Amino acid sequence: MRKPMVALVGRPNVGKSTLFNRIIGRRVAVVSEVPGTTRDRIHADAEWAGREFIVVDTGGIEVVAGYHTDPISEDSARFLPMILSQASTAIDAADLVVFLVDAKSGLTAADQEVAEILRRSTKPVIVAANKAESESAQSQSVEFYVLGLGEVIPVSALHGVGTGDLMDKIIEALPQWESEEDEVDTISIAIVGRPNVGKSSLLNAFLGHERSIVSPISGTTRDAIDTEVVYHDRHVTLIDTAGIRRRGKIDRGIEKYSVLRALQAINRADVALLILDAVEGITAQDEHVAGFILEEGTSVVVVANKWDAVQKDSYTMLEYSKTIRHELRFMDYVPLVFTSALTGKRVPQVLETAFEVYDARFQRVNTGQLNRLLRNALASHAPPSRWGRRLKIYYATQAAVDPPTFVLFVNDPKLAHFSYRRYLENVIREQYPFKGTPLVVRYRARDED
């Protein structure tokens, strides 16, 4: 049986994301005073009193734009139908709904509209009157009983007031769940790239339905969104992320925290799909995103999306590949897939390539073969001397996988010049490609532990 799911819903700016972060005990959802900040569904595991469940944050439900207590921009207004669709999906999938209202603002017409949607869903509902840190706000919470959805629990998600009582009520209302004894190995794949290259479209192409909001407006995705799937008997967590811009181009506020979420997604992923816009070609921003991936030591597949929109002849793919290889020459070990999320062309190949790259993270090289390979490399191209001394390699071994890590015992690590380090890594890759996977090569003095 799957873990029970709790959906947090309500009109915009009542504190759903703040409560979400409070429940899971860390900052995952982007929190802002700007209405409509959360657009997609995001979810995370939570635990209370020994009970595990999944909590889902949703975008603010807005049936009529005029119900906003704060003005919204024209850009945000165009997302309202999509946000409503995403929130409705979360409600349908949930075992329990926590309906958040604003105790300070009091009952609004928008609250009544959301309550009507929840009544039609027939799902069990707990009403939480947020921002009730003061006695007057707690007293004002009683007016929400008119919604006819049962007991109203005053809380302050920001300060933690009343959240323990709310969690107790959630546990009481949830169905029982027992975790499976055998844990399943899951491959985490982050879909990353600069804004508006088609990351969410590719995710939806993988799934065959609209799991994420797709829009031609850059910056639509703000949170890192996890989706679990099974493909060819392999369990996969797909992580859609916000578009990453160059550090100097990142706006303060919401976009800054969105980029941090994307970088965290790269850090926790086994494989990153670096999405490029095939129409625009590779840009400096793409190179910066590739640099982020390289810094984290994450395996990578480069995906040239929107290939259907490129004017092609017999040599287009070859020329495009040469250009990408040249611009990403610091990641010359990565595979390249040309695809179209719109038409579905080569979309399965993207995941299949990601699996190959993931498997390469766990490849091992026999110690004897490794040492013979390095001895031949030294004989073919001796290391240059520095300060009148020359690098000597006494012994080498693969110390770890995920990522593949090699330790070379030498006379003096300082004698290993960058260019010669790169040469030895290329020698290893010629024999053992480690497709799409970075190698960690450490040099240790012979007398080191």
SSE layout and pairing:
Elements: E1 5-9, H1 16-24, E2 42-48, E3 51-57, H2 74-77, H3 80-93, E4 96-102, H4 109-121, E5 125-130, H5 135-140, E6 152-154, H6 163-173, E7 186-192, H7 199-207, E8 225-231, E9 234-240, H8 254-268, E10 271-277, H9 284-296, E11 299-305, H10 316-327, E12 336-338, H11 347-360, H12 367-380, E13 385-386, E14 389-390, E15 393-400, E16 405-410, H13 418-431, E17 440-445
Parallel strand pairs: 1-3, 1-4, 4-5, 5-6, 7-9, 7-10, 10-11, 11-12, 16-17
Antiparallel strand pairs: 2-3, 8-9, 13-14, 15-16
Helix pairs in contact: 12-13
Could you give a quick summary of the protein structure above?
The chain has 449 residues and is of the alpha/beta class.
Q: What's the SSE pattern? A: EHEEHHEHEHEHEHEEHEHEHEHHEEEEHE
- Mean pLDDT rating: 81
Poorly predicted ranges: 30-41, 64-72, 215-219, 247-258
| N→C terminal distance | 48 Å
Instruction: Name the helicity range.
Output: 25-40%
Shape: elongated
Q: What share of residues are in beta strands? A: 15-25%
Radius of gyration: 26 Å
* Count of helical regions: 13
Largest sheet: 6 strands, mixed
The order of strands across the largest sheet is 2-3-1-4-5-6
Q: What structural class do you assign from the helix and strand content?
A: alpha/beta
